[in-house]
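Re: beginner question about structure tokens

> Can someone show what the tokenized structure looks like for a real chain? I only ever see the sequence side.

Sure, here's an example I had lying around. Input first:
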Amino acid sequence: MARNVLLLTLALGAVPAFAQQDVSKVLGGIDADAGQTYGDLNTVNGGIDIGAGATTGDATTVNGGIDVADKARTGDLTTVNGGVELGRDVSVDGDITTVNGSIFVDRGGKVEGDVSNVNGGIGLVATEVGGDLRTVTGDITVGVDSHVKGGIRIEKNKSSVRFEAKRDPRIVIGPNAVVEGALVFERPVVLYVHRTAKIGPVTGATAKTFDTPTAPKD
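And the corresponding structure tokens:
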């Protein structure tokens, strides 16, 4: 009897270690089940879906999007061709990065590092970002009650591949939003800042003030 209890205890103790193992694929997506704990998630051709309340290490793909449900906790989120979308109250202990794809973080989000892409919009709602927001051709919306501890940078295209933007990026700093660092624009943008927002110094653009719930249409 004692031996059986010991074996059961050892088996139960092994479950968390198994659950935290890395998941790696070349073809196909990865699903991290709600409420479970994983190590790093890596695939080449496929999306990554992280369920509500799950805990993971870094999540990386090349061709595919990354979707994170409410109250999950992750490491870095990285893709090349695909968007990144986070639900409510998601914590990212690192950066969010994509090349071709949009990034959206819903209410209660917390990102410890930077949020960056090349092509695609970046949108925050009541979200805290510990680092910078960076893009080349994308729009950026620092939505209501969001707090960016770093700055915002719209960079020149330094790649040998030229991306043709149809219009100037639109940058909106919404009601009660805060951007502590500098806003640096290396190319023309349209910048809207709500009267209740607080921002750092601006280089390369002139802010247009608004006091409505949403910024004016261009």
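Each token stands for a local structural state, so reading them left to right follows the chain. The helical segments are 2-19.
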